[in-house]
Amino acid sequence: MTSLLDRAMEAARRLPPETQDEIARLVLQLAGGEGARIALTAEERAAIAESRAAAARGEFATEREVLAVWAKHDL
After folding, report:
1. Residue 47, CB-side half-sphere exposure with 13 Å CA sphere
2. What residues does each domain of the chain span?
3. What would the mean pLDDT of 29-54 be, rounded to a whole number?
4. What distance in Å separates the CA atoms of residue 51 and residue 59, rounded to the nearest whole number?
């Protein structure tokens, strides 16, 4: 294990168990190992379906709306 990965794992150990599980799923997905597929919740599936339907209708955020979200998150 590289020293960077070792430091990342040590940092992850200090996080709550739910966050550790999220990180573990991501690492497994990136490594192509077991658990490579991430199961979506019903709410996540509904949000994706809603987004696809809005895109199909041509409903997209304006540049002003995108910039407002970026500003809100200091991006």
Report:
1. 5
2. 1-39, 41-75
3. 85
4. 9
Phi, psi of 25 (to 5 degrees): -65, -40
The model's pTM: 0.44
CA distance 30 to 19: 17
What's the first-to-final CA gap in the chain, in angstroms? 33
Q: How is residue 17 written in tokens? A: 């168990």
Give the C-alpha separation, 48 to 43, whole Å. Answer: 9
Lowest model confidence (mean pLDDT) among 32-41, 43-52, 59-68: 32-41
**8 Å CB contact between 35 and 25:** yes
For 26, the enclosing helix (H) or strand (E) is: helix 17-31
Six token digits for residue 7: 């430091």
CB 20 within 8 A of CB 12: yes
Residue entry with tokens 């979506």: 40
